[in-house]
Amino acid sequence: MRGNYERRPLVLSTADSKGRPHSTGVLYGISPEPKFLFFILTAKNYKKVRNIKENPHVSFVVPFPHYYFRFVPDSTVQIQGIAKIVPFDNPGAQEVFSQKRILKMMLEQSYKLDVKDELVFIKIKPNRKIFCYGLGMGIMELRKNLESGEYTVTIPEDKLELSFKD
After folding, report:
1. SS3 label, residue 16
2. Hey, which of 27, 99, 110, 139 has its CA 20 to 30 A from 46?
3. Is the pTM of this model over 0.90?
């Protein structure tokens, strides 16, 4: 999922302590090798942050729409994981956001507007199994059998953070 995928927003889903869901679109960054972590910059008082503090289990989907063939369902990557809130000055999150142009602009704007005290990062450790639909498949193949587009990818253990520290 590294590289061009980071240009697409994802839809993050959280749930509060009573299991009530909440979904929102966000921009994100992916940590450089060797570990596979996601980072999202957000405000401390947003619902997604409050929900993660109550229930750290999250899921998200990155959609890849077919612009010319709207009759075909979007290709997707779906990931579940554990999230935690880390401070705005977290070195790992700062490094991730300084690597991509739009994310770097978000950081610079935060400093320029002096709102960094109101911001935090959401750090997400994905589960090993990633669910995919339709990526790398021909549209005609999917059109014949929509179910054939489902598959999973397993993240190697050495790419996952074991202790999930700040």
Report:
1. coil
2. 99
3. no
